[in-house]
Amino acid sequence: MPRWVVRLLSASIIAAFAVGGAGMAGGAAAASVAGRAAVAAPAAVSAPAAGSASAAGRAAAPQTTPAFIWHTLPLVNGWKSASKPALVTGTPAWALSKGVLYLRGAIMQTVTDGNATFAQLPQAAWPASNLYFDVWTNGDVAGIVYVSKTGQMEAYAGNSAVMTSLAAVSYPATTMKSHKLALENGWVSSQSVWGTGNPSYEVSGGVVYLSGSMEADGQHLAAVLPTVARPKHVLYVQVYNYGGTPGWLEIFPNGNLEAFGPAAKSYTSLAGVSFPTATAAWKAFKLEDGWTSAAGKFHTYGPAWTVINGIVYFTGSIYQASGSIGLWTTLPAGVKTTADVLEIETDASGGNPGIVSVTDSLGLVGSAPYSNAQAFTSLAGIAYPQSY
């Protein structure tokens, strides 16, 4: 078995590899950056280091792939690509397609006590408001990626300095028209406090995009999506909650949008949530090594995939009835990557962070501890370009 597959099948081996690659500087930086998670806010935003804006402003040669033009992210403040021969995550980059911004790659920091700012996006790629994403970091620990409305990008919390995945992070750019989401049961917009946008939705090309932020002192039911913006089946999607605590949304075919998590009512981000409408046609994954559809247990769809306008979407949920490794499928041609390994955070049992890894051949899952992924792993909300 290839060495990179073995590493992916064991979260502890991945952690050992990443720490070894980062060295002592990476470990020290991780402790420093992770300390910001204790700040009483959705996230703390640092000022760019001197010279970072000018460095980020330098134009980088685009990488052309079918249907996408990938632009290399000019990394600053000691951040660099985390891609290595043993775990090829690709060059950190961004692409804009049909009004949606997509990120790729993974990053690591080589400077002790370094600045959290790792890049500056050009104006065409700016979001309409500040955004917070829960993402995978080394050791299957949730970290944070922050993108300001002026394109400043930060990574912190978890083990972000050792390795932070940007894979499958996406959001509508300012050119996409949004519609206000009517909140219920005491839920209100968090825009006035954090500048993270009013809760809204957009439907474009058969895909629903959520955005904005909200908080409440009431029930879990926050809103009812209009008919045009409803999924075909129940979705469990992990999102950012107050202070970077992982939370999750449950989205139902009748439009009910419910928010859960220890800090969900203090702050829930809708940034980065996208899913096909009820009209989508899905193709089933073939499961392996004891992995089974969790549709019957959690009322989701069976594990499946589709491609819309060059973007791969996953749905459904799985659990491991028997076995002890995270290999759950051999990926079909329309889903697997060309070379890169995508480390994508997802919702696992109890709302804990899990990971779905997409490679050039295999689909893998994990969590810390692994038993969380075994009991339940959601595939809903995963979306990435075919051109990885």
Number of domains: 3
Rg to the nearest angstrom?
19 Å
Structural class: mainly beta
Residues in helices, as a percent range:
10-25%
Identify the strand order in the major beta sheet.
1-2-4-5-12
- What amount of the residues lies in strands? 35-45%
Number of helices: 6
Total number of beta strands: 34
How would you sum up the global shape? globular
Q: Could you characterize what this model shows?
A:
The chain has six helices and 34 strands. With 388 residues, it is mainly beta. It has three domains: 151 residues, no CATH class; 98 residues, Immunoglobulin-like (Sandwich), CATH 2.60.40; 103 residues, Phage bIL170 RBP, head domain (Immunoglobulin-like), CATH 2.60.40.2460. A hairpin with a 2-residue loop joins strand 15 and strand 16. It is globular, with a radius of gyration of 19 Å. The N terminus is likely disordered.
